[in-house]
């Protein structure tokens, strides 16, 4: 490798052999946060069981399996990047859900069930 002095900045490498400093490996604190959902038995809903950090989606599934299903509790695991979740705030409950309160036709008590309909 040859060096030259350019613009008074001292020795500067020239040619194709410019050394590149290695980037430090990302620490675990820099890994994205994932929310973990596990379905306990077939037919049941997935339930939020916790959070974890992982470098990518595949490792998040493996880590979730190791951490949250150690005793064969689950049959299915979902992992979702926390940054990809959009949620309402509990403080917004009244303005968000109030419009459905005045729509009585959405409540099953609005309808009369015929006597010959079983299991209702």
From TrEMBL:
<protein>
    <submittedName>
        <fullName>Ring-1,2-phenylacetyl-CoA epoxidase subunit PaaB</fullName>
    </submittedName>
</protein>
<dbReference type="InterPro" id="IPR038693">
    <property type="entry name" value="PaaB_sf"/>
</dbReference>
<dbReference type="InterPro" id="IPR009359">
    <property type="entry name" value="PaaB"/>
</dbReference>
<dbReference type="Pfam" id="PF06243">
    <property type="entry name" value="PaaB"/>
</dbReference>
<feature type="region of interest" description="Disordered">
    <location>
        <begin position="1"/>
        <end position="25"/>
    </location>
</feature>
């Amino acid at each position: 490798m040859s060096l030259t002095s350019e613009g008074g900045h001292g020795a500067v490498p020239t040619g194709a052999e410019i050394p590149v400093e290695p980037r430090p490996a990302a620490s675990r604190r820099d890994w994205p946060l994932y929310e973990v959902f596990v379905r306990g038995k077939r037919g049941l809903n997935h339930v939020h069981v916790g959070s974890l950090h992982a470098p990518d989606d595949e490792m998040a599934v493996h880590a979730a399996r190791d951490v949250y299903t150690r005793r064969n509790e689950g049959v299915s695991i979902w992992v979702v990047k926390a940054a990809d979740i959009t949620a309402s705030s509990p403080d917004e409950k009244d303005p968000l859900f109030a419009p459905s309160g005045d729509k009585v036709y959405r409540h099953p008590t609005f309808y009369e069930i015929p006597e010959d309909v079983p299991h209702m």
